[in-house]
Every structure is written in structure tokens, then in C-alpha cells.
Write a structure and sequence with these properties.
Length: 178
């Protein structure tokens, strides 16, 4: 029996564009599909980072407890609001936003961390959040190129704002480790 091939990214984008609703916002269906796909990866990274930050807020211990507990809460609260903006941008482009854990795991470049069975030391939590914020930035930059190429200024603006936030979070967290 011949192996079935997984469709390539261009083939997936073409198929998504073909099934996209008739929307005329000045961005082609193909470009909207590519941008929505990139935003889905960005949403998955952002959600995974949100969940990890919230997990660490709950489970941090040690001499940095109070400062980190407060910092993590401020970050996950801000991240939660941003998730809605990202998902709504995907919807505005005419596509469904991913919304299940299995979709987020498949789409995210950030590894999930256990909460119930093990919690890393505070400095390992901080390093993981530095790494997670940097991963979100890398994904945002990839999608920003696609949005720019497609003439999608609202998505470019959203991604630029998120980049500024996650670069700041990474810097602040990184400073704790120096």
C-alpha cells in the first residue's frame, strides 16, 4: 500500500484559501490563509507560554517567591487578554482559531511543562519563561513577514505590539538570572 503524503505548506494554504469564505478586505484569500496559519502558530505559542507562566505562578517556591509570584501574575494576566486579540484577528481573516490543547500542542514551538508531578526551581522557571518569550518573538517575526508581504497592516500592528511586550518580558526575566 503506498504511503500517503502529508500536504506541503503551500498545498495546505491553497486548500485553505479555496475553502475560505468570500471576504473582500483587500487581502487575497491565499494571503489571508497563510497569515491565518501563521497566526494559529503564534496563538499556540502564546497560549502555551500563558499556561506555563500561570503554572509557574502557582508553583513557584524559594527565596524569590513573592517577587516572582507577583511578576508571573502580571505577565499571565496581560497574556490572557492578548490571546483574545490574536484569535479574533484569525476570525477577522475568515478562518477558525485553534482552541484545543491538542491543537496548541501540535502548533506550538514551546514545550509544555508538568505542574502536578514536578515543579522546577525558581531560576529554571525564569529560564524557561525567557526561552518561551523568545520563542514567541521568533514566531511573531515569521508571521510578520507573511503579513507584510500580504499587505495586512492590522496583523502587522498586532504582531509588532506583541513583539514589544515579549521582548520586554524576556529582558526582565533574563535580568533576574544575571
Amino acid at each position: 500500500m503506498p504511503k500517503s503524503k502529508t500536504p506541503s505548506k503551500p498545498a495546505k494554504a491553497k486548500a485553505a484559501a479555496a475553502s475560505a469564505p468570500g471576504i473582500d478586505i483587500g487581502i487575497s484569500a491565499k494571503d489571508r490563509a497563510g497569515i491565518a496559519d501563521g497566526l494559529s502558530h503564534f496563538l499556540a505559542d502564546s497560549y502555551t507560554l500563558y499556561l506555563k507562566t500561570h503554572n509557574f505562578h502557582w508553583n513557584v517556591t524559594g527565596p524569590m517567591f513573592n517577587a516572582l509570584h507577583t511578576m508571573f501574575e502580571a505577565q499571565y494576566t496581560e497574556q490572557w487578554t492578548a490571546l483574545d486579540e490574536i484569535a479574533e484577528r484569525i476570525r477577522a481573516l475568515g478562518f477558525n482559531a485553534p482552541g484545543s490543547y491538542s491543537e496548541f500542542v501540535r502548533l506550538s514551538s514551546i514545550r509544555e511543562e508538568p505542574g502536578l508531578t514536578a515543579a522546577p526551581a525558581w531560576h529554571d522557571m525564569v529560564q524557561q519563561l525567557v526561552d518561551g518569550n523568545e520563542a514567541v518573538c521568533r514566531t511573531a517575526r515569521k508571521v510578520l513577514k507573511v503579513a507584510d508581504a500580504g499587505g495586512d497592516d492590522p496583523t502587522a500592528d498586532l504582531l509588532t505590539q506583541r513583539l514589544q511586550t515579549h521582548e520586554k518580558y524576556a529582558w526582565m526575566l533574563r535580568s533576574l538570572l544575571q
